Amino acid sequence: MSSIAVSPRSIAWQRRRRALAQAWAQYRRHLPGMIGLGVLVVIVAMALLAPVISNHDELRAVNTVDNPTWATPSEFPPLGTDNLGRSVWAQFVWGARISLLVGLAATLIAIVIGSVVGIAAGFYRGVGSAVLMRLTEWFLVIPFLPLAIVLAAILGPSVRNIILVIGITSWPSTARLVRAQVLTLKERLYVERSRALGASNRHLIGRHIFPNVSPIILANLTLTVPIAILSETTLAFLGLGDPTRASWGKMLDEAFRAGALSRNAWWYFLPPGLGIMAVVIAFTLIGSALEEILDPRLRERRK
Amino acid sequence: MRPVKLLFAAALAVLVALGATAVATAQSDDQEKVVLTVGVQGSVFDSMSPLVGQTAFDYDVWNNQYETVTRKSAADFATTPGLAESWEASNNGKTYTYHLRDGLKWSDGKPLTAKDIAFTINRGREESWLNYESWVANLTAKVIDDRTVEITSSVPDPKLPGLGDIYILPEHIWGKYDADEISKYPGEDGVGSGPFVLDEFKRGQYVRLKSNPNYWEGVRPIDEIVFRIFNNPDAMVAALEKGEIDAAHNVPSQAMEKLSTSDSIVAVQGNQGGFDEIAINGGDGLKKPHPALLDRNVRVAIAHAIDKQTLVDRVYLGQGSVEEAISPSADPAWVPEIPADEQFAYDPEKAKQILDDAGYTDTDGDGVREMPGGGEPLEFSYYVRSESEVAPPVAEFVSGWLAEIGIKLELKPISADELITVIGKGDYDMFHWSWTPYVDPDAQLSYFQCNQIASDPADPTNYYNDANYCDPEYDKLYNQQKVELDHDKRLEMVHEMLRRWHQSAVYQVFALTPDLQAYRTDRFAGWLHQPADVGPVIFSNTSPTYRNLTVAASSSSGGGGMSTGAIIALVAVAIAGVALIVYFVRRRSTAGERE
C-alpha cells in the first residue's frame, strides 16, 4: 500500500465508501427502484423550481380576477384554471412542495420517535421497556384517522400542526420493527464479547446496535413517506389542512367542493390525484429496492 | 368437490331469493307511502324548538308543524285567516278579537283552544322567549271562551292584526316546563296543528315530518316529508337529477344552468331579501375580540379592502346584487340608500392609509401590521362554514384582500350549528354568514339590540346579536319605529337606524343573494313561490308550498331510473348466472378426469 500513514478511522471510512458504492451499484441494477428514483427526482425538481416555472401570484384568487374561470388547459395553458380563476398549474407545483414537505418532515418525526423507542425497548429490560411497548401497542391500536382528526381539530389547521399530527401518530410500526431487530442483535456473539470486554451500554448502542438497525430504519423511512403523504391528503381533503397553503390534498378538497367532478373539469382534480399517486409509488419502489439491497436475506432469495 | 360446489350453488340461490324478497318488500313499503324528499347541505338544522332554533331550515319544520292565528298569503304576505277564521278591531286598533275555527285539534287529538294561544303569547312575553320576543313583547292575550281570544297591544303596533310569525304551541306539552326549563326543552315531541309534524330528527343526517291526521284543512296527500342532509353539493344535484329527491335548496350556482335545461326540473332564483355579510366581533359580548377590532378605524379599513362586486361576480356567479346595508325585509323598500360619501367602496390604498394614520404599522417587517407602538400583530380568526358552497371561496378572497393591507386571517372551518355556539361565547373575530329576513322589518331589526347579545355563558345560544355590538341609540330608534303607525315615518326611522349600523362597520353586508333552489315537476304539483313569481318555493317566509303540494297526475313509481334494489337484484342474478356457467364449463372440462 501507499506510504501514507493509515489511521483506523480512515480505514473505516474507506470501507464505508466501498460499501456505499457497492450498494449504489446494486441499486442501479434494480429497475423498479431506478424508475421510482427517476419519478421522485422529477417531482422534487418541480417542487424546488416552483418559483421559476410558475407564478406564485396565481395561487391567490384576489390576483386572478381577470382570468377566466374553469378554463380548460388549452384555453389557459398549461393546466387551465379552477372555479375562482386560479391557475391549476401553479397550485399543482406549489402544492407539491407542501405535500413533499409534510410527507418528509412527518416521516422524520415518526422515524426518530420510532427508532428511539424501538432501540430503547429492545435493548433495555425491565419496567421501562414494558411501558414503552405497551405505549407503542396503545398507539398502534388507536384508529389512525379519528385520532389524527381530533388532534388536527384541537391544534388548529397549519402546516406545522399537520406535520406534528402525522408524525406522532405514525411511529409505532417503526418502533416495533426496530425493537424486533434489536432483540436479535443484542444476543449476537460480537455484542456479548464486546460487553464482556467492558463496553458501556452507550458504546454498544452507538457502535453495534444502531449501525446494524440503520438499514432497516432507512428502508422503513422510504416506506413511511408515502403513508405520511396520503395522510396529509386525507386530512386536507377533510378540510383539516392549512387553508392558506396549496397542497395536493387541498386541491382535491376544493375541486370536490367546487363541483369539478360534475363539470368534468378533469384538469382540476386529475393533476393532484396523479401527483400523489406518482410520489407514493416512487417512494414505495425505492423503499422496496432499498429493503432488498440492505437486507441480505431478501437479496439471496431474489437470486 | 362436487357436494361442496352444489352446496355453494344452493347457498347462492338462497341468497338471491332472499335479496329479491327484501327488495320486493322494501319497494312495497315505498309504494304505500307518498314521501316528499328535500335535499339540503350540511348540518344546518339547529333545534326543533321554535323558541330557540336559529337557522332558516328550522323554520320550515315549524312552518309545517305549527299553525298560526293568521297566515301570510303566498302571493304577497297579506294577512289571511289561519286558526282564526275572522277578527275585528276595537280600542283604536290596539285590541283585536279573534274567532277560532270550530273543532280545531292538535295532532295528538287534544282540542286546540284559545287557551293555547293565550299560553303562547303571554308566557312568550313574560319569559322573553328568544324567537318570540320581538313579536309578543307588547301583546297580552285574554281568553274569552274556547273559541275566542282577545289580543291587546300596549302600544300601537303596525304588525296587527297579523300574527303570522307566532307559532302557537300546545299548552298541554309546553306548559309542563317553567321559565328556565322551557328554553332548554328540545321540542321534539311532534305535537302540532299544521299539515305535517315532526316524526324524527337525527342531527346531521335528516329531519322527517309525518302527515298530521287532525289537520283542520284535511289530511294532506303526502305522508312524509324528509329533509335529507347532503355533505356534497354534487351529490345533491345528482340525486335531484336521478329523482331520489324532489327538491333541493342551496343548489350550487354553477349547477343552476344545467338543471334549468331539464324537462322535469325547474330551477328557481328565489328573492326574499336574503343578504350575506362579514361580521366582526364588536366586543360587547362574553368575550372580547382582538383589541384592534374594537377600533372602528380597523373595521372601516377592512370594509374598504373588500371588493363586493368581485365576490358577487366570482363566487356567486353574478346571481346576486352588491349591497351596503342590511336588508331587514323581503320588501326592498326597507333597505336604506347609503350616501356615496358614507359607503365603504373598494379602495385598498385608502384602507392602508386609514391603518397607517391610526398607528397600525408593520414594525417587524413580516408583512403583518402590529398594534400601535408594536406588540400584538393584526391576526384575526375568521370562521368558515364548511357546509356552505360559498363560504370557503369568500374566505379565500377576503383573506387575500386583507393580506394586501397587512392583516392576517386565521381561517377556521366550522359547521353552522357549532358556529352558533362560538358566536354566542364571543370567541371569534370575524365570520361570514347570511340572513333571511321576515316581511315586517321589526324582527330583523330587533336582533341587533343590546339585549340580544348573549350574556349567559351557560346558555350561549340564547342570543341574536351576532355582531356582539351594542349601540344604545340604535335601540332607542328601534323602540320608536316599533310603535310608529305612520308607514313613511317608520320607514325613515328604519333607514336611519340601518345607516347607523352600517357606519359602525361591524357588519359588512356585501350582497343581496337569492336562494338557489330546484324542484322536480314529475312527482308533485303545486309548488308556490312566496312572494309570487320572484320568491323561493321552499324555505320561504311561511313556506305555503308543503300544504299545497299534490301528487302529480303523471306521477308513477317507474317514471325515474331503476331503483337501487332492482339494480342489486339484477347484479345478484347476473353473478348467479356467471357462477352457474363457470360451474358447468368446469364440469365439462374435468369430466374426463372424473370418469
What topology emerges from the helices and strands here?
The complex is a heterodimer of chains A (303) and B (595).
Chain A: H1 8-28, H2 31-48, H3 50-53, H4 88-123, H5 127-141, H6 144-155, H7 159-169, H8 172-185, H9 189-196, H10 201-237, H11 248-257, H12 266-294, H13 296-302
Helix pairs in contact in A: 2-4, 2-12, 4-5, 4-7, 4-8, 4-10, 4-11, 4-12, 5-8, 6-7, 7-10, 8-10, 10-11, 10-12, 11-12, 12-13
Chain B: H1 2-32, E1 35-41, H2 56-65, E2 70-72, E3 79-81, E4 84-90, E5 95-100, H3 114-126, H4 133-136, E6 139-145, E7 148-153, H5 171-174, H6 179-182, E8 196-202, E9 206-211, E10 224-230, H7 233-242, E11 247-249, H8 253-260, E12 265-270, E13 275-280, H9 296-305, H10 308-315, E14 321-322, H11 348-357, E15 379-385, H12 391-404, E16 408-414, H13 416-424, E17 430-435, H14 442-446, H15 472-482, H16 487-504, E18 507-512, E19 515-520, E20 524-525, H17 545-548, E21 550-551, H18 564-589, H19 591-594
Parallel strand pairs in B: 1-10, 1-11, 15-16, 15-17
Antiparallel strand pairs in B: 2-3, 4-5, 5-7, 6-7, 8-9, 9-10, 11-19, 12-19, 13-17, 13-18, 14-18, 20-21
Helix pairs in contact in B: 1-18, 9-11, 15-16
